Amino acid sequence: MNRSIMRWFALLLCFAIVVVLCAGSYTIVRAEPFGPSQWMDVGTAPVAPSVPAQYLLNRAGTAPMPSASGVGARPASPGILRSYLPVLMSPTSPGILRSYLPVLMRLTSPGTLRSYLPVLMSPSSLDPVNPAPNCRYGTTALTTAQTDWLAPLGAGWYLDFRTHTPQTLPGVEFGQVLSVHQNKNGCTYLNDYSVNPPLTDSGLGALIASQPGALWIVGNEPDRGPNSENCLGPAQGDTYPEIYAQAYHDIYQFIKSRDATARVAIAGLVQVTPGRLQYLEKVWQAYRQRYQATMPVDVWNMHLYILPEARPDGTPNGVANVALGTDPALAIRESDNNPNRCADPAVYCWAEHDDLAVFAQQVVAMRTWMKQHGEQAKPLILTEYSQLYPFIDYDDPVNPTRCFLQDEYGKCFTQARVSGFLNRTFDYLESASDASLGYPLDGNRLVQQWMWFSVNTSGVGYVSSLVTKDLKTLTQPGEAFRTVVASRATYINLVPSRVAAAAGVMSSPLGPITATLFVDVVNSGNIQSTLPFTVTAYADQALTRPIDAAVVALGINGCVQRTARVSVKWPDLSVGTHFFWFKVDSTNAVGESAEDDNVIMGKLTIYPHGVLLPLVRGR
Q1: What is the per-residue pLDDT across 302-356, written as a single tens digit (0 to 9) for each?
Q2: Which domains does the chain have, with CATH numbers?
Q3: How far apart are CA 412 and CA 414, in angstroms?
Q4: Which residues contact 311 (CB under 8 A, 6 or more apart)?
Q5: DSSP alpha helices (H): ranges in 398-524?
Q6: CA-CA to 104 of 20 to 30 Å: which in 77, 195, 272, 518?
Q7: How far apart are the first and last CA of the chain?
C-alpha cells in the first residue's frame, strides 16, 4: 500500500473516531407535523412558485413498510422524500434539524433517498424511531402519563372521556367528551339533564373559545343504566332517549353558536344491536318531533363490544344490560354456556366476544341505519372497542387449562387472544368499504377512525391494556398495536369535497360583475399534510384558462377530519350561466396517493339587473 493511500486512510479513520467520540452528545430527533389544522377561509393569495420534486424536503422518518392487505396498503407518496438513514442531530434546538455530517443524496426514484457516504451513529441513534401518527388508529389515554405512549404506538388521535385543554402533541388529535346524565330523584328519572362542563360562558363556552375546530362528543353510552338490582349503582350515561335528544339539541346549538367550525358527534352506544338501534331511532324521532327538524350530526359515532344484554330468561344481566327505554324482547341473550346456541342470532356466546364476523355485522348495521336516515355522506368513528372479559385465576399465563372466565369451548381470554383480535379487526377496519354504504369522500370506507380501549386500565378491559401498569413496557397487545401501525404505509390525498358560488347574482346596470367562488378541501390520507399547496380555479375543463388561485398555508389533518375552505374572485362576468373547475394542488407541491381526484366542477348563474321580490312559501 503506497504512502498516499495510507495517509488518506488514516485521515478517514481519524475523522471517524472524532465523529464517534462527539456523537454521544447528539440524538435522533424528528421534525413533527404542525398541530391540528382548522377549517379556514384561506382567501386569495399570491400563487407560490412551484418547487421541483427533487428539491422538496420532508421530516426524517422510518421507511414505510408494506401492509399485508387492505385499503391502507398504499405506496409511499411520489415526490415526498424520506430519509431511511438516521442523521446525527443537535438536541439543543427542538424541531430544527441540523445535520452534523454531510450526506450526499440523490433522488434515484420518486420517494427514495440514497446515501453515497456512510453515516456514523451514536448508540442512542440505534433506538427505533416512532411510527408517524396515523389518524386511523387511536387509543384512550386516561392520564397525562399515558399520553407519553401515543408517539411510540403511532396513535394519531385519543380521548380520555373528559373535556379540557389537551397537551399539544404534533400530528395527534384529541376528542372532547362531554359528561351528560339524566337527573334523578333517588331512583326516579326526571325530565331534565345535567352536563359537565355547564353550558355557560365561563364553563363550556371558555373551552370552545380556546379549542376552535375541535371534535365534541356529546355524552358516553347514554343507553347504559345501572343494574336492575341497584338503581343507584354505577352506570354510564344513564339517560333515556327522549332526554338525550333534548340534551344533544341544547349542547349542539351552544357549541355551534360559538364555533361554526366545531365538529359535534353523537355519543357512542355500548354496541350496535337491535335494542341499541331502537334506542338510536327513539333519539332520532324524539328530536324531530320536539324541534321539527332533522337531528344535525357532524360525525356519527359508535362503540363496538360483543356483549350479551340479558340472561337466558330475558332479564337484564349486568353486562351490557337492556338499553334504556327499549323493548326488552330485543335484548341479545346469554348462551347459558351452551355452545350449540352460538349460531342463534339472538344470542351472544362468550366465545363470540372476539368474533370478527359479529364485529363486521355491527359495523354494517350502523352504516345501514345511517344510510336509511340520509346520513351516508357523513363520517363514522369508532371511539371505543377492545376485549373486556377478564383473564385472572389462571393456572398458566400462556397455555391455561383453567381461569376465572372460560368461553363455551373452554378457552380463556389471554393476551395472545386479545392480540389476535386486535390484528384481525385492524385489518378489517383498514379494508372495509362499500360504495352503497361507505363515506364517499373517504374511498367509501365504512369507518374513518377507530380507537382501542386503552393505553392502560386497572378496571374492566385491563387485559386489553397496551402498556403495563407501571407504564414502562408495551404488553403483547401493545406490541401488536405498534407493529400494525408501523407497517401501514402513510400517505396524503387532497380531495375537493364541494363547491359553491354566488348564484343568482343580479348584474349591475353599470357593467360586468365579480363573483366569489368557493371550494372545500379535505385530506383522505392517514397523515396530516404539512406543505403549502395551491388551489386554482379555471374557466375551462381543459384547465388552460386560470381564473384565480389561492394558497392553503396550513396543514390539513387526514381521515377527512377537517375542511379548508378556499375562495377566489372571478371578475368581468356577464349575464348567463358560467361553468368553472377547481384543481387542488395545481402546482403538484404535495405528493399524494392519488392525483386523479383533484378536480371538481361547479357553475353559477348571473341574472339580468332587476328588482328582487321576497318569495313567500305557504305552509
Answers
A1: 999 999 999 999 998 999 999 999 999 999 999 999 999 999 999 999 999 999 9
A2: 134-487 (3.20.20), 494-607 (2.60.40.10)
A3: 6
A4: 317, 333, 334
A5: 415-431, 476-487
A6: 77
A7: 101
